[in-house]
Amino acid sequence: MNEKQVPVTTGAVPLSTGSVPLVSHARPHYTRRQTTLAILALAIGGFAIGVTEFAIMGLQREAVADLFGELTESTMARGGMLVTFYALGVVVGAPILALAGAKRERKMYALLLLGIFAVAHVLSFFAPTYELMLAARFLSGLPHGAFFATAALMAAQMAGPGKRARAIAVVLSGIAIANLTGVPAVTWVGQQFGWRWMFAVVALLALVTMVAVAIYAPRQQPPAGASFGREIRGLANQRLWVGIALAVVGFSGMFAIYSYISHISVDVTGLDESVLPWVVFIFGFGMVVGNFLGGWGSDKSVLGTVLGAMALVAVFMGLFGLLAHIPWLMILLLFLIGTSASMLGPAMQTHLIDTAPQAPQLAASFHHSAFNAANAMGALMGGWVIAAGWGLRAPAYAGATAAALGLLIALYSVHLARRGGHKV
Predict the structure, then answer these.
(1) Containing structural domain, residue 107
(2) Is residue 27 in a domain?
(3) pTM of the predicted model as reported, rounded to 2 decimal places
(4) Confidence of residue 223 (pLDDT cuts 50, 70, 90)
């Protein structure tokens, strides 16, 4: 790059206004062009992750038919494990790999995580059995949270305190844009040429991200004094754990519906399977809108954004269960669920970083552990109510209940913030 950059000597910009500063207040200078290109390069990784996390939901009918040879309520529920095992990989991998990266230079660590992600998807493409596919999906999920944690901290440092939530939203927008463009495209490719080609596409995207990050992202040292022990000690924080519970419960409702959206669209709404790429496109459009609304709102009020989004999710989920048989209302409500649920993304990522200023890497990774614990829990919750014979509308009602519980936890988070003198 042509722009001159001041060497990084003091670590990241402070991300919290807590009593113990995260790092030195000195901060390297980044030009606008450097910042933009680096954050966009990191967002490509989010795009690849979004494709693998969500495209399997749109291709679940093809996957189930191929792996089990039949489509029944029992095999549909087992197909949901393809979602669950990836999510479990994220839950396990995010804190472990985030801790491993606490003292590492961030650019090289992001490249390492992307390499693991690419190899895991090659293994997924060739996995011959259902059991080995589950193992490969678990492996694919391991670097997910640590990559996003590293990318979010890199983006926040480059953008500075006043624009950090919006910078994080751009990194997270890769997931939302994947649902708008990548997931519908890969769903179509999977329907035409075989559902396993999704994994080949994602592996290629991971390699493209590695090249972009290698070229455009600056080297970035971890915070001064960063250590494994400091990260662990930073977890002794009630607000952090309440925030994690909020993310797990609040996000699970969306996944209770979306994990089975292909079955709901065909068997409840009466749409043809050929329309499914457009269904996931509408959901993705809602995610893009919600992601940027969440980033904008969070720079004004983090927990205010969480409260508003969680209330909307609960309402839209309940209406979805009632009205899913009416095609245009089902599509509209799916868009609104995607919008309101995605508003939570930047807000929760920022909130968790704020709650643990002494453990930034680990706190940032917990957002993705929580998000994917919700993914796993939502898929399991939806599978349970379907397998129990309650029908394909039941996941929507289960999701609305989870979102209502999340709203109560959000109100408690506001109480804790105010009690501690923190900004809401």
Answers:
(1) 32-419
(2) no
(3) 0.69
(4) low
